[in-house]
Design brief:
The protein is of the alpha+beta class and 417 residues long. It has one domain: Hypothetical protein af1432 (Orthogonal Bundle). 51% of the residues lie in helices and 12% in strands. It has 19 helices and 9 strands. The protein has helices at residues 22-28, 31-35, 56-76, 85-94, 104-114, 118-128, 130-138, 143-150, 157-163, 169-182, 191-197, 213-231, 234-252, 254-260, 266-275, 283-295, 301-311, 333-348, 410-416; strands at 8-12, 16-20, 198-200, 206-208, 317-326, 356-364, 373-376, 379-382, 397-405. A 4-stranded mixed beta sheet has the order 3-4-7-8. The longest helix has 21 residues, at 56-76. The N and C termini lie far apart (69 Å). 42% of the residues are buried.
Length: 417
């Protein structure tokens, strides 16, 4: 069979036809990559934007495609070697392989209980999962080196920045993709202009030619608006917190915990990774278990109440919502004290701790270390340091403070806020 005949073509709604050569095809065919077809990209966003049912799989293909384009440009410019191309596009394809079901919603549970995030789970899967290890080894790639690029721990800073910086290939794919599927126009960016001018400075930071400044400014502004209108939308966040609360309750209720095993501990997840069975841990599994709990009336009454609220879209509502924009990171002490006071008052009134949630988030808009550089007079300058760029006027952080509760607690919450 000729080399051309070994290729496959996948049509993508953002990038058109994506070509899979033997390496990419073999990786895509592994169970851990196929699992991403069954994990929604935007978790519970479809509760607000019905079209937001696209998956981590399509996003991963898109990031790989952009990594190829950027790598080819950098190779043509003499900045990186041809030998680095497979490493970069492989890391791009596998960058989200460790996402929990429902993406960030359940990641919170595992981070708060076990101190591990999806990047570290990705490292574990790339290094220890047998199907992926076999494919990488058969194509002459080191699983450990690929995993280091994914987690931003590679010895070459440029490789880390291509996947982990303000203007990395991950963000360049998810902004237009999420905008398309939610119908929110704020995520539209001048992708072609950015790709055509993207390069690396002498320290390995992402940089662009001065003629792309407006495109990069638009990118930053688009991301800020997408944070407000989609990624941290108060209703979407409420359902993510509700699902996390449900999963956490299942972990601690003996009657139903066995339904989720082995995905109830870090040790159980690692065992599934090593045995090659991690692929069943997806949205379908978790959603199906919630239905089983309801159908068989398993677990506590409050657990079933929360699941009913989730599946019938009667979940947490934001009864207090404070957003501010700052140059420095940190929630004000006054806001922290307010949340603490309200939580104590609710518990003192006998309100179940799972029926309400306090939420704080400090969202970085512009990274201090990895913001985009602009090439100017044979040197690179942070875009926020340019006198004629609007970036210096943008906030670096979006601070969010919220109180969520089930609708039945509305009057109680309003009395305390």
């Amino acid at each position: 069979m000729s080399k051309e005949n070994t290729k496959k073509y996948v049509f993508d709604e953002i990038h058109g036809y994506i070509i899979l050569d033997s390496l990419m095809r073999d990786l895509v065919d592994t169970p851990p990559l196929q699992r991403l077809r069954r994990i929604k990209q935007l978790s519970q966003a479809w509760y607000v934007f019905p079209g937001a049912v696209h998956t981590r799989f399509s996003h991963s293909l898109g990031v790989m495609k952009l990594a190829e384009r950027v790598a080819d440009k950098l190779i043509n410019d003499g900045i990186i070697s041809k030998d680095d191309r497979d490493l970069l596009r492989t890391a791009a394809l596998l960058h989200d392989v460790g996402h929990t079901p429902y993406s960030h919603a359940l990641e919170y549970v595992f981070y708060s209980n076990y101190g591990i995030n999806h990047e570290e789970l990705s490292y574990m899967i790339i290094v220890e999962e047998p199907h992926i290890r076999e494919v990488l080894s058969s194509h002459g790639l080191s699983p450990d080196e690929v995993a280091k690029v994914v987690t931003g721990a590679h010895e070459e800073p440029a490789f880390n920045n291509l996947l982990n910086s303000d203007l990395d290939v991950d963000r360049l794919d998810y902004l237009p993709r999420d905008a398309l599927h939610t119908g929110v126009k704020y995520g539209l960016i001048d992708l072609e202009r950015i790709i055509q001018t993207l390069t690396l400075d002498d320290e390995g930071y992402i940089a662009v030619h001065p003629k792309a400044i407006h495109a990069v400014e638009s990118f930053y502004v688009s991301r800020l608006h997408m944070y407000r209108s989609v990624y941290y939308h108060k209703t979407i966040t409420g359902y993510q917190l509700l699902l996390a609360a449900i999963y956490e309750m299942v972990l601690f209720e003996r009657e139903v915990k066995s339904l989720l095993e082995p995905f109830t501990s870090l040790e159980g997840i690692r065992k599934a990774v090593k045995e090659g069975s991690i692929s069943v841990w997806d949205d379908f599994l978790v959603g199906g278990i919630l239905n089983v709990i309801l159908a068989r009336r398993l677990g506590s009454e409050i657990l079933r109440e929360l699941i009913k609220a989730y599946v019938n879209r009667r979940g947490y509502k934001a009864f207090y919502n404070y957003i501010s924009f700052k140059q420095e990171q940190g929630i004000t002490q006054a806001e922290i004290d307010k949340l603490s006071r309200i939580s104590r008052a609710l518990l003192a009134r006998g309100v179940n701790a799972y029926t309400f949630r306090t939420y704080t988030e400090s969202v970085p808009i512009i990274s201090r270390e990895k913001e985009v550089r602009v090439l100017s007079n044979a040197r690179s300058v942070k875009i926020s340091e340019l006198g004629d760029s609007i970036i210096k006027s943008l906030p670096r952080y979006m601070e969010i403070v919220r109180i969520y509760a089930l609708p039945a607690l509305e009057e109680t919450i309003k009395d305390l806020v």
